[in-house]
């Protein structure tokens, strides 16, 4: 598990599922209220991280509908008695298919209907923190990115990675839309924004602007 902290905010990153997806337990230091972002599976490890940090989980947040991010959300919602917020409703078809995807990939997953769909311009709170919602289609049609402008960090799901971008060959994927989401919505957030992504190490918007091979093309910057 990796730790992340900026003033007033801490997070523990818990790799889950055979896809090593970065489930993130994120909390407000002032209130010790927390959100579990993308509980794809391996719920025992997530429960252990919650117990170790001593925080009170008030919601589950989903960045998009893929199994490694959302497969454990229904069960964790039942366990904790908290609502599921996100992703955008365009990923409804993915969330409805999670049980069959679990059979394909060989790990348990259940379909989930969020308590709240998110759209561009919405905000999500965690304790005293406020995260802005950006709808960033491309990797999946309903992918959302959550940004804290005050604390200068973002949760980007599978939209952008250190040195790469989300794959676009899955159902509903769209390469042009993905690059437009990154160019029009993520790069303008500012180079100093640190981000936690769905797989692999953290990075910053500035590092990716300068070095990410997918963002160096003509007409992009
Ligand atoms: Zn994904
Ligand atoms: Zn993923």
From TrEMBL:
Keywords in alphabetical order, please: Hydrolase, Metal-binding, Zinc
Q: Which cofactor does it need?
A: Zn(2+)
Q: Which Gene Ontology molecular function entries are recorded, alphabetically? A: hydrolase activity; metal ion binding
- Fetch the SMART domains from UniProt: Lactamase_B
Q: Hydrolase as a keyword? A: yes
Metallo-beta-lactamase domain ranges (all copies): 20-199
Source organism per entry reads Microvirga lotononidis
Q: What is this protein called?
A: Zn-dependent hydrolase, glyoxylase
Taxonomic classification: Bacteria, Pseudomonadati, Pseudomonadota, Alphaproteobacteria, Hyphomicrobiales
């Amino acid at each position: 598990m990796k730790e992340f902290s900026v003033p007033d905010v801490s997070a523990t990153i818990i790799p889950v599922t055979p896809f090593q997806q970065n489930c993130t337990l994120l909390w407000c230091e002032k209130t010790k209220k927390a959100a579990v972002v993308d509980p794809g599976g391996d719920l025992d490890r997530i429960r252990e991280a919650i117990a170790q940090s001593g925080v009170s989980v008030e919601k589950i947040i989903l960045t998009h509908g893929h199994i490694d991010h959302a497969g454990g959300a229904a069960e964790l919602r039942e366990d904790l008695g908290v609502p599921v917020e996100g992703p955008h409703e365009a990923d409804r078809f993915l969330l409805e298919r999670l049980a069959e995807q679990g059979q394909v990939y060989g790990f348990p997953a259940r379909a989930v209907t969020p308590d709240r769909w998110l759209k561009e311009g919405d905000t999500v709170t965690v304790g005293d923190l406020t995260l802005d919602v950006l709808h960033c289609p491309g990797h999946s049609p309903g992918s959302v990115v959550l940004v804290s402008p005050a604390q200068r960090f973002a949760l980007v799901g599978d939209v952008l990675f250190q040195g790469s971008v989300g794959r676009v060959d899955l159902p509903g994927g769209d390469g042009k839309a993905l690059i437009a989401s990154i160019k029009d919505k993520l790069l303008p957030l500012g180079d100093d924004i640190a981000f936690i992504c769905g797989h692999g190490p953290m990075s910053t918007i500035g590092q990716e602007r300068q070095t990410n091979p997918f963002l160096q093309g003509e007409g992009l910057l």
